[in-house]
Amino acid sequence: MTDTTRTEPVRRAAVREPGRFARFWASDFAWKFRHSPVAMVSFGVTVILVLAAVLAPLIAPYDPFNPASLNLMNGFTPPGEPNAFTGDEFWLGTDDQGRDVFSTILYGMRISLFVGFAAVMFALVVGVLLGLLAGYVGGWTETIIMRVADVQLTFPSILVAMLIFGVAKGFTPVEYRDQMAIWVLIFAIGLSDWVQFARVVRGATLVQKDREYVQAARLIGRSHWAIMLKHILPNVLSPVLVIATISLALAIIAEATLSFLGVGAPPTQPSLGTLIRIGQGFLFSGEWWILFFPALTLLALALSVNLLGDWLRDALNPRLK
């Protein structure tokens, strides 16, 4: 007679299920990612830039916003060349105030990414809630929400953001405007970008609300909010995530545009758009690096996020599987 107590652990180990990471790595989504050079490169560039912005206090060789660390004698130092007066060298040169351009890019990218992420999350919450209400409730609620969305779509989003920013800043006390400028900017960009989320979620909700699982939830007495948030919402998130990724790139560009026009981030908290506006004033005097490197960083960040969003749209599209 064989001893089955000793062979039982071996059998259990042989039939052990793979972990979550192994299942994800073997999924169709991961296979498409591994075989898409554009997705891998754009994801790598995005991760590098985001980590560089998050770890800016550790990576940046100087604190560009600390007046005690600035030396006006280092102003307009070309990239990689020693300063004629102090002998200091800077990788990407310095601006008119002697600030290291590399350090200002890292800190400015933190502001741009924070505004972009926060504005997209705000637009996502507002758009998803209004889209769920419009699709599930219908009637006058749907008519009012979608007519407001249609009216807002007739205007360029950047103009809507400028209008909202100006109105919101007008209601802000003068002594708090610089401190609240970033939050007002997030509010303006978020309100100008909720329409895309609402339209997509409303269309998906119209399809899902007549499914059997929704009717079963109604029969057992679930509330309308519970049905919308716990049953319908998880089934309409795939297109929302794709739109959020693409909207992140658009929000970063919108923030840079507003800051370039002088109605965005304050000079005390400069973003990439503010740095580009400052460098634009020195472009024709020969100090090209003050504009070139922040603009190149903004281009790489927006392009990589946009390409990643385009790949997600194709990878999550069931018609292309």
Automatic annotation (TrEMBL):
Membrane disposition: Multi-pass membrane protein
Intracellular or extracellular location(s): Cell membrane
Matches recorded under Pfam families: BPD_transp_1, OppC_N
Transmembrane segments: 38-60, 111-136, 148-168, 180-201, 232-254, 288-309
Residues in coiled coil: none
CDD domains, alphabetized: TM_PBP2 (cd06261)
Protein family: Belongs to the binding-protein-dependent transport system permease family.
Official protein name in the record: ABC transporter permease subunit
Protein species of origin: Kangsaoukella pontilimi
